[in-house]
Design brief:
The complex is a heterodimer. Helix content of chain A is 80%, strand content 0%. Chain A contains 3 helices and no strands. In chain A, helix 2 packs antiparallel against helix 3. In chain B, 81% of the residues lie in helices and 0% in strands. The interface between A and B is large, with 68 and 85 residues.
Chain lengths: 97, 170
């Protein structure tokens, strides 16, 4: 069970990374980052079956930080949308060198 | 039975994850994400993390995904669902990497025999003694009380930051 959970976690993480790399819609990129965080959560829960309850506490903290990150990130997306009228990341090139 | 359920949840989670990446509209992507999160809550239950499974449904699928949905509806993106995926060869390469990583993890863990430890027995004992909530709450409010308080400050800063960023006139 633990091995399978870790493999599932690796697969989900790579699918999330793939999404961040290939999608250009910033909201979907953001969802894929959440997917990566969740994949790591799953591996932490699986490792807590090996080493004790601490892994589950880390998952609790990761979820809290993910909630804070979602709130701030979505606020940034809203304020960018006000300027550019789009959420496509190819349009945000002010910081691109 | 447990293994069968795990494979059902794993299939749902991977299918949902691929749906998140492939769906054309952000709302479709979001609904696939909710599927993935629910399936992962199922795997959490199978791994005896009952509290985290409940939190996963209530906080992640409930609160955070609804926040995403609010923002998608607030932005009113219209119906411009053009394909925004990049590159076919890149996609094939990435899915090759998925297989490679999964295989490597399975092979390493299987070879080292490290897939069992003292954790399962300790967690089961803690759950039997204090219940699923107490097993997490006890170390959270003793060993990890300082990170817990810092998390509270982080949430406050995030609330203020989100308000400042999203307000029209500061």
């Amino acid at each position: 069970m633990i091995t399978e959970a870790l493999v599932l976690s690796a697969v989900l993480f790579v699918v999330g990374t793939f999404g961040v790399l290939v999608r250009r819609n910033s909201i979907i990129m953001f969802l894929c980052i959440e997917l990566q965080l969740n994949a790591v959560n799953l591996s932490l829960v699986a490792f807590s079956r090996m080493w004790g309850i601490d892994g589950q506490i880390f998952v609790f903290f990761v979820m809290t930080v993910a909630a804070a990150e979602a709130a701030v990130g979505l606020a940034i997306i809203i304020s960018i949308f006000r300027h550019y009228e789009t959420v496509n990341v190819d349009s945000f090139n002010l910081l691109k060198w | 039975m447990t293994a069968l359920l795990f494979y059902v949840f794993a299939g749902l989670a991977i299918g949902g994850a691929i749906g998140v990446v492939m769906a054309r509209s952000p709302v479709g992507s979001l609904l696939f994400m909710v599927t993935t999160l629910a399936a992962m809550a199922g795997t959490f239950v199978l791994l005896e993390a009952h509290f985290l499974a409940a939190i996963q449904i209530i906080v992640y699928a409930g609160a955070i995904m609804v926040l995403f949905l609010f923002v998608i509806m607030l932005l009113n993106l219209g119906h411009d669902y053009r394909r925004d995926l990049k590159g076919g060869a890149f996609a094939i390469l990435s899915f090759g990497v998925i297989g490679l990583i999964a295989g490597l993890v399975a092979q390493q863990l299987g070879a080292s025999g490290a897939v069992s430890g003292p954790g399962a027995a300790a967690i089961d004992a803690a759950i039997a003694e204090r219940g699923a909530l107490g097993a997490i709450a006890d170390p959270l409010y003793t060993t990890y009380v300082v990170p817990f308080e810092i998390t509270g400050i982080l949430l406050l800063v995030a609330i203020v930051g989100a308000l400042v960023l999203a307000k029209r006139e500061v």
